[in-house]
Automatic annotation (TrEMBL):
Keywords: Cytoplasm, Elongation factor, Protein biosynthesis. One of its GO terms (cellular component) is cytoplasm. It comes from Candidatus Kutchimonas denitrificans. This is Elongation factor Ts. Residues 82-85 are annotated as: Involved in Mg(2+) ion dislocation from EF-Tu. Belongs to the EF-Ts family. Coiled coil: none annotated. Residues 56-198 form the Translation elongation factor EFTs/EF1B dimerisation domain. NCBIfam families: tsf. One of its GO terms (molecular function) is translation elongation factor activity. HAMAP family: EF_Ts. It is found in: Cytoplasm. InterPro entries: EF-Ts_dimer_sf, Transl_elong_EFTs/EF1B, Transl_elong_EFTs/EF1B_dimer, Transl_elong_Ts_CS, UBA-like_sf.
Length: 198
C-alpha cells in the first residue's frame, strides 16, 4: 500500500473541501493518485447525495446580489435540511455564488422541468423549421432539434448552465460538491432577477 503523507491529504482537502479522513481514504483507495482520488470523492459524494433524495429540504436562506452598476439585482432561495447547515459559511457562499450566476447569465428557470411547456414547444418548432430550411431529412432533423433543445436548456436553465467561476463544471455540479461536503440535500427553491427597464 502506498504511504499517504499529511501534505497530500491536505492538498486533496484544499481542492475538494472533503473531510480529512475521507481524503485520506480516497488517496489510499487510489494509491495516492490525486486525480483518481478527486473522482473517488465525487462518486462518494454523489452516492451520499442520492441517499438523501427523499429528504425534505425545508430550511435554508434567501440570498441577494446587486451588481456594482446598481442596474441588476437577484434574490435566490436556497434550501437544505437543517438550520445548522443553512448557517454554515459553505452554504451561504453557495447561495451568493448562485445569485451572482443568475445576475450574470439570466436563466429562465431553475431546471428544464420548470420551463413552460409552450415555450419548449415553440423552440422545438423553430429548430424544426430551421432544420427543414437547411434541407435535412426528417430523421436527421429530429436529432438536430434534440441537440439544439439540449443546448437551449444548457444556456437558459440555472442547473444546466456552465458555472461562471469554473466553466469546466455545471451549476448542478457546484451544488453537488457543497451537498457532498455538508452531507445534506440542497435545492434551489426559486429566484427573481430584476433589471432596470425590464
Amino acid at each position: 500500500m502506498t504511504e499517504i503523507s499529511a501534505g497530500i491529504v491536505k492538498e486533496l482537502r484544499d481542492r475538494t473541501g472533503a473531510g480529512m479522513m475521507d481524503c485520506k481514504r480516497a488517496l489510499q483507495e487510489t494509491d495516492g493518485d490525486m486525480e483518481a482520488a478527486v473522482a473517488w470523492l465525487r462518486k462518494k459524494g454523489a452516492a451520499a447525495a442520492e441517499k438523501r433524495v427523499g429528504k425534505e429540504a425545508s430550511e435554508g436562506i434567501i440570498s441577494s446580489y446587486i451588481h456594482h452598476s446598481g442596474k441588476i439585482g437577484v434574490m435566490v432561495e436556497l434550501n437544505c435540511e437543517t438550520d445548522f447547515v443553512a448557517r454554515t459559511d459553505d452554504f451561504q457562499e453557495l447561495a451568493r455564488d448562485l445569485a451572482m450566476q443568475i445576475a450574470a447569465s439570466d436563466p429562465l428557470a431553475v431546471s428544464k422541468d420548470d420551463v413552460p411547456a409552450e415555450l419548449v414547444a415553440k423552440e422545438r418548432e423553430i429548430y424544426l423549421d430551421q432544420a427543414k430550411e437547411e434541407g435535412k431529412p426528417a430523421n436527421i432533423a429530429e436529432k438536430i432539434v434534440e441537440g439544439r433543445l439540449r443546448k437551449f436548456f444548457e444556456e437558459r436553465t440555472l442547473l444546466d448552465q456552465k458555472y461562471i467561476k469554473d466553466p469546466e463544471k455545471s451549476v448542478s455540479d457546484r451544488i453537488a460538491e457543497t451537498q457532498a461536503k455538508l452531507g445534506e440535500k440542497i435545492v434551489v427553491g426559486r429566484f427573481a432577477r430584476f433589471k432596470i427597464g425590464e
